[in-house]
Amino acid sequence: MTRPHSEDIRDRALARADGGETVRSIAQALRISPSCVSKWKNLRRQTGGIAPGKIGGHKKRTLSGAPAEWLRKRIRSGPFTLRKLTAELAERGVKTDVRAVWTFVHAEGLSFKKNDAGSRAGSPRHRS
């Protein structure tokens, strides 16, 4: 993703626009996209400023706080499937998806394995 244009170029573009110059001529003179000038004009009209918005950041997980505590207790109480846990969370009013539940379960180290390699059925050829 590219960086936002500096406030200096935004100021110059909007000063030209206030002077009556067309969007396309401003864009050509400053070597920017005509849509940038239009968007900056709209931004200034709506917010009163021309500062760029925040880029990136961290999205808070939906399964934190009280839902996380409930989920830990539920997982330790017995066998589960990710789809079943997602449905149980939905019944409790927590809107989430299977991928978020999977991420939570594996981050907590709470995955449930049905059986290990030693207890699987063997090949009929190798029975004693």
What does this protein look like?
Among the domains are: 7-47; 66-113. The protein is an all-alpha fold. The chain contains six helices and no strands.
Task: Throw out a few tags for this protein.
single chain; 128 residues; mainly alpha
Our Rg estimate from Cα atoms comes to 28 Å
Reading the helices and strands in chain order gives HHHHHH
Shape, per Cα inertia axes: elongated
Mean pLDDT: 86
**Proportion of beta-strand residues:** under 5%
Alpha plus pi helix count: 6
Give the helix proportion (percent range).
Answer: 40-55%
Q: Give the N-to-C terminal Cα separation.
A: 62 Å
Number of strands: 0
Uncertain runs are: none
Decide which structural class fits the backbone.
mainly alpha
Q: What's the story with the biggest beta sheet? A: none
Q: What does the secondary structure layout of this molecule look like, with pairings?
A:
Elements: H1 7-18, H2 23-30, H3 34-47, H4 66-77, H5 82-91, H6 98-108
What's a quick, concise take on this entry?
Among the domains are: 41 residues; 48 residues.
